[in-house]
Amino acid sequence: MYSIVFLFSIVMKENDFSQLPVKKGEKFVGIVLSKDIGLAKNDALVEEIMRPTIPIIPEDTPREAVAELLKSQNAVLVKGKQVEGIITSADLL
């Protein structure tokens, strides 16, 4: 059986993601960054490696407001009727 850390790393590599949001039910409870995966023990639990949730913004948030948030956050979740995606500073280049 594969560890959750291994499964997260596969999803990240196959999709060229640098982070994955973590949900519990319908609520976002955290985020796992690729660097967290690299530092984690193979048998680590998601709760042990995830960071607190990141800001969730509406899909019509102005680019300038997103850029301001990214000064203090690794990423933001964009939410429409459902989560649409994650924006990082690299996406604003």
TrEMBL record:
Residues 46-93 form the CBS domain. It holds the Pfam family CBS. This is CBS domain-containing protein. It comes from candidate division MSBL1 archaeon SCGC-AAA259B11.
